[in-house]
Design brief:
Elements (H helix, E strand, L loop, with lengths): L11 H35 L2 H18 L9 H27 L1
Amino acid sequence: MTRGSIGISCTQHDTQQRAEQQQWTTFDTWFSRCRNTLHFLAGLILGDSGMAKDAVENCRTQALGSLPCFESEGAFRSWLARVLIEEAITMREITQTVSGLRG
């Protein structure tokens, strides 16, 4: 009986899927370790805890999308902080623009 005949296969696609799943699991682990620091930074920039939480989630989404371009595990926290700072500044500028239009 071959491996394929009992529903077990280890194709390149399967191996790639497992590697990608491990990469995302590792990302979530690293990100969760940095979450409090990121929230603190966002709070300093935005001055609002709710907006800081949104900025951290936006940072996670952006970082996850950019993860294939990231190359150095040692600089992960710094890289995330840069992504977060850019996101928080953008959010602050949008908020100020909207406030200016209303005022």
